[in-house]
Design a protein that fits this description.
The complex is a heterodimer of chains A (147) and B (502). Chain A has 147 residues and is mostly helical. Chain A has five helices and no strands. In chain A, 75% of the residues lie in helices and 0% in strands. Chain B has one domain. In chain B, helix 2 runs parallel beside helix 14, helix 3 packs parallel to helix 16 and helix 5 runs antiparallel to helix 16. Chain B starts with 13 loop residues before the first helix and ends in a 6-residue tail after the last helix. Classes of the chains: A mainly alpha (147), B mainly alpha (502).
C-alpha cells in the first residue's frame, strides 16, 4: 500500500467522522445560552479544530512523496474474521471454554511456521491452547466471573 | 496525616507483597519482549484490579511500569532491539558494550542506574507531591484548563514523527472523552440511546483497543515467526563499585532530568531518556565514545526513564493530571475503585497515597533484587515467538474487557477501536496522545466552561491571573521549541538531498 494514498484515505475518513460528530451533537436541541451549560460548546470547538488540522495534514500528504507500506491484508482479514466468528459463536452458543480452545488452536496453526514437523507442531499447539484456556479459566474464577 | 506518621509496616501484607512481586515479574518479562511494552501489560491487567484492594492494585501496576522500563533494556542490550520505546537510546551504547565485553556488564550498568533513578523518582514523589497538592488547592478552573492544554501540547510534540497528525490524534482523543452524560448540563452526548455509554467510553476498553489490539494487528502484519537468538551465558549482571563510580555523574544527570521531565504533564520516559543521553554526552569527558559502548550512555537514559515513572505520579496525585500516557492507564485503576486523583485525595485517601509513596520505593528495591538474580531468565523471554504470544494476548484482552463490564457490546467497541487504531498507527498518528487527551478531556472541558462562567464569557481570565500567565509562557516555550525543531529538521532534510549538477 502507498503511504500517501493511505494517509489521504485515513484523513478523509477522519473528516467524515468529524462531520458525523458535528451532525450528531447538533441533533440535540439546546435551550441554554450560557457557555457553562451549553453542552455543544466544546464539541463544536473540537469539530472545527479537527477539520482545520485535517486540511493541513491533507495538504502535507498531497505534497509529500509516498513510500510503500507492507500490509498483509490477507492475514489481517483472516484474524478479524476469526475474532468476529469467535465472539459471535460465544454469544450465541455460550460454550466459551471450548470455543476459546478451538480459536487458539486455529490461530496458533495459522500463525505458525510452515514446513516444520507437522506432528510436533500440532502437539505443541494443542498443549499451548489447553494451557492458555486453563489460564483463562483460573483468571475468570479468580475474578468470580461466570461466562 | 503527615508523611512520616505513616506506618510503613502496614504495607507488608501478603496481598501487597504478592502484588509487588507479581508486578515486577510481569514487567520484566513484558519489557524484555520487543514490541510489547509496560502499557500493554498494564492495560491487560487493569480488569484484574477490580478484585484487589486499591493499594495492592496500584502497586502492582506501578511495579509493572517500573520493572518494564528496566526490562526494555534487556533486549536492547542483548539483541539491539529495544523492548520499550524509552529503551531505544539504550540500544546505542548497550548493544555496543555487550559486543565489546559481555551483555551482563551492560545490563549491570542498566540495572544499577535504573535502581538509582527509580529511587530518586520515588523520593521526588515522596517529598514533592504533598507541597504541590497544597499548592494545587490555590489553582482554579483557568489554570487547570491550561495545565491540561500544556500536557496535550507536550505529548503531541514528542510522540509522533508528524506533529499535525499528533494534534489530530489529540482532538480525536478529546472527542472520545465527550461521549456520555455532560456533567454540567446533564445531557447525554453521542450515546445513541445505549445505557452502556451513559458513563462514557470505558477506559479499560479504550486502553486495550488502543494499545493491545492495535499492537496485535501490527504483529500479525509483521513476521510472526521471528526468533531472536541470544546467548544466555554472559547475562549475569555484575558491576563493581569502582565501575559504577565512573557512571555516577551520568546516573545523577539522568535521575534529575528524568524526575523533572516526569513532573511535566504529558512528557514521558521516552523524552527523558533522549534528553538525559544528550546532556550526559555534553558533560562527558569522552563524548566521542558515546554510541560505541560507553557505559555513561547506558546509565543516563536508564536512570532517567526509571526516575520518570515515580515523578510522573506527582501531577496525577497532586493535580489529578497524569504525567505520562502509561500513568493515564494507571489512573484507570483509581477510577475503577471510585477514587478521583487530585489535591483532595490527601484528605480522603491518605493511607492509600502514603502507601503508594513508600510502596514505590519498595518496588524499586524488589526490581533490583529480582533483576540481579534472574535477568538471564527474562532474556529467555526473547525466544517466545510472536505466533504464540499474539493469540494469547488476544484472548486475554477479550476476557479482560468482558470481566470488567460483563457486556458483549464493550468487546465490539474494543475490536472497532483496535482495527481503527491499527490503521492510525500505520500512518503515523499518535496513540499515546489520543489516550492522554481522552483522560484529560473532561478536565479540560469542565474547567474551560467553569472559567468562562466565572468571567461571564470573557477569555481575558486566562491572561490576567499570575499562575495562568506562567502556564501560558510554558505552553509558548514548548510551541516555539516545536517550531524551531521543525525548521531545523527541514533544513537538514534540504541539505541532505543531492542536487543535480548543472
Amino acid at each position: 500500500m502507498n503511504s500517501k494514498i493511505g494517509s489521504i484515505v485515513t484523513l478523509l475518513a477522519i473528516v467524515s467522522f468529524g462531520i458525523f460528530y458535528f451532525w450528531e451533537i447538533n441533533k440535540v436541541s439546546s435551550t441554554s445560552n450560557s457557555i457553562s451549560s451549553d453542552f455543544k460548546f466544546f464539541p463544536k470547538i473540537l469539530f472545527f479544530l479537527l477539520i482545520f488540522l485535517c486540511l493541513i495534514s491533507l495538504f502535507q500528504a498531497i505534497k509529500k512523496e509516498g513510500t510503500k507500506i507492507e500490509v498483509n491484508f490477507k492475514l489481517l482479514a483472516i484474524t478479524v474474521f476469526l475474532l468476529v466468528g469467535y465472539i459471535l459463536s460465544w454469544i450465541f452458543t455460550g460454550y466459551f471454554y471450548l470455543l476459546t480452545f478451538v480459536f487458539l488452536f486455529i490461530l496458533f496453526t495459522i500463525y505458525g511456521e510452515r514446513g516444520k514437523n507437522i506432528k510436533r507442531s500440532i502437539v505443541v499447539n494443542v498443549a499451548t491452547s489447553v494451557i492458555t484456556t486453563l489460564l483463562v479459566y483460573s483468571l475468570l474464577s479468580f475474578l468470580s466471573v461466570q461466562v | 496525616m503527615e508523611i512520616f506518621n505513616f506506618d510503613i509496616l502496614s504495607l507488608f501484607t501478603l496481598t501487597n507483597i504478592i502484588a509487588i512481586f507479581a508486578g515486577v515479574f510481569i514487567g520484566l518479562f513484558i519489557g524484555a519482549l520487543p514490541g510489547l511494552g509496560a502499557s500493554i501489560a498494564i492495560a491487560l491487567l487493569l480488569p484484574i484490579t477490580y478484585s484487589m484492594t486499591p493499594l495492592a492494585s496500584i502497586l502492582m501496576l506501578l511495579a509493572i511500569y517500573q520493572a518494564g522500563e528496566y526490562g526494555g533494556s534487556i533486549s536492547a542490550v542483548t539483541i539491539g532491539i529495544p523492548g520499550t520505546p524509552s529503551a531505544v537510546v539504550t540500544t546505542l551504547d548497550g548493544n555496543a558494550l555487550a559486543k565489546k565485553s559481555y551483555p551482563g556488564k551492560a545490563l549491570g550498568y542498566s540495572l544499577a542506574a535504573s535502581t538509582i533513578g527509580g529511587l530518586v523518582g520515588g523520593l521526588v514523589l515522596l517529598f514533592l507531591t504533598v507541597p504541590l497538592g497544597k499548592f494545587a488547592l490555590k489553582l482554579s478552573a483557568p489554570e487547570y484548563f491550561l495545565i491540561g492544554i500544556l500536557g496535550l501540547i507536550a505529548v503531541a510534540s514528542l510522540s509522533s514523527k508528524d506533529i499535525t497528525k499528533s494534534m489530530i490524534s489529540v482532538v480525536l482523543g478529546l472527542m472520545a472523552g465527550t461521549i456520555g452524560i455532560d456533567l454540567l448540563s446533564g445531557v447525554s452526548r453521542f450515546t445513541f440511546g445505549r445505557p452502556e455509554l451513559m458513563e462514557g467510553l470505558s477506559i479499560v476498553v479504550l486502553v486495550i483497543g488502543l494499545f493491545a489490539f492495535s499492537e496485535i494487528f501490527s504483529m500479525v502484519n509483521k513476521n510472526l515467526n521471528t526468533k531472536y537468538i541470544t546467548d544466555t551465558k554472559g547475562l549475569k549482571t555484575k558491576v563493581t563499585l569502582q565501575e559504577f563510580r565512573k557512571v555516577l555523574k551520568p546516573t545523577f544527570i539522568g535521575s534529575i532530568m528524568g524526575s523533572i521531565i516526569g513532573i511535566m504533564p504529558g512528557l514521558g520516559a521516552g523524552a527523558s531518556s533522549w534528553l538525559s543521553y544528550a546532556t550526559a554526552k555534553r558533560f562527558s569527558k569522552d563524548p566521542q565514545s558515546f554510541g560505541k559502548g560507553n557505559p555513561e550512555g547506558i546509565a543516563a537514559p536508564e536512570s532517567a526513564n526509571n526516575a520518570t515513572v515515580g515523578s510522573a505520579l506527582v501531577p496525577l496525585l497532586s493535580l489529578g493530571i497524569p504525567g505520562s500516557p502509561t500513568i493515564a492507564i494507571i489512573m484507570g485503576a483509581f477510577i475503577i475503585h471510585g477514587i478521583q486523583p487530585g489535591p483532595k485525595v490527601f484528605a480522603t485517601e491518605a493511607n492509600l497515597v502514603y502507601g503508594i509513596f513508600y510502596g514505590f520505593l519498595i518496588i524499586t528495591v524488589v526490581m533490583y533484587l529480582i533483576g540481579r538474580l534472574v535477568t538471564p531468565l527474562f532474556a529467555r523471554a526473547l525466544a517466545f515467538p510472536n505466533s504464540k504470544i499474539t493469540p494469547i494476548v488476544m484472548v486475554l484482552s477479550i476476557v479482560g474487557v468482558f470481566a470488567t463490564h460483563l457486556q458483549y457490546i464493550q468487546i465490539w467497541i474494543m475490536l472497532g477501536i483496535g482495527v481503527m487504531c491499527y490503521f492510525l498507527k500505520e500512518f503515523d498518528f499518535s496513540l499515546p496522545s489520543m489516550l492522554l487527551a481522552f483522560v484529560l478531556s473532561p478536565i479540560i472541558e469542565e474547567n474551560l466552561r467553569r472559567a468562562l462562567l466565572l468571567s461571564e464569557g470573557s477569555y481575558s481570565i486566562f491572561f490576567t491571573r499570575a499562575y495562568s500567565v506562567v502556564i501560558i509562557l510554558l505552553i509558548l516555550a514548548i510551541v516555539v521549541n516545536m517550531v524551531f525543531s521543525l525548521i531545523k529538521a527541514k533544513r537538514v532534510q534540504r541539505t541532505s538531498i543531492p542536487r543535480p549538477i548543472s
